[in-house]
Design a protein that fits this description.
Blueprint (H helix, E strand, L loop, with lengths): L1 E5 L2 E5 L7 H8 L18 E4 L2 E4 L13 E3 L11 H8 L9 H14 L5 H7 L9 H30 L1
Parallel strand pairs: 1-5
Antiparallel strand pairs: 1-2, 3-4, 3-5
The chain binds FE2/S2 (inorganic) cluster (2 copies).
One FE2/S2 (inorganic) cluster binds next to loops.
Length: 166
Amino acid sequence: MAQLNVNGRLRECDAEGDTPLLWVLREQLGLTGTKYGCGIAQCGACTVHIDGVAMRSCVRPLSTLSGTEKIVTIEGLAPDASHPVQRAWDALDVPQCGFCQSGMIMAAVALLKSKPKPTDADIDAAMTNICRCGTYNRIRAAIHLAAGQVQRQAIAITIQTEGGAA
Ligand code: FES
Ligand code: FES
């Protein structure tokens, strides 16, 4: 029995050590927002965050994780899907079939954490996930839109914090 920290909760998982994290999330924990595409770390549909870094969960065995790593799935980004990246996706109607999109959003959130104002080249280099529907242009536009929102949110938090500290 392994213990994982998923979306801020410690969860018990009863699976073999070589079970990929993707299947633990989907089948044991019922977190089906994370998708299976290729199973060989190529498409990014299974992207989650582990300690804030975007990872492909289809190739991450359960035995390499413990309760100390913080795992975040699409369900854990915001309780009401109101994360700035999710709002930007919604505003620009990014998804078509939608299958790749939770992985895309998780990759985009990780990108904006490391590069709050990415260029097109930064986005193209970081977003290696595959979309069979070809939504790449809207994804790029949504990341730029979200970058502005994330920055405004950070400024508002700073002002609030400074105001509270005064
Ligand atoms: S299912 Fe993991 S990268 Fe494709
Ligand atoms: S929206 Fe269909 S695969 Fe990306």
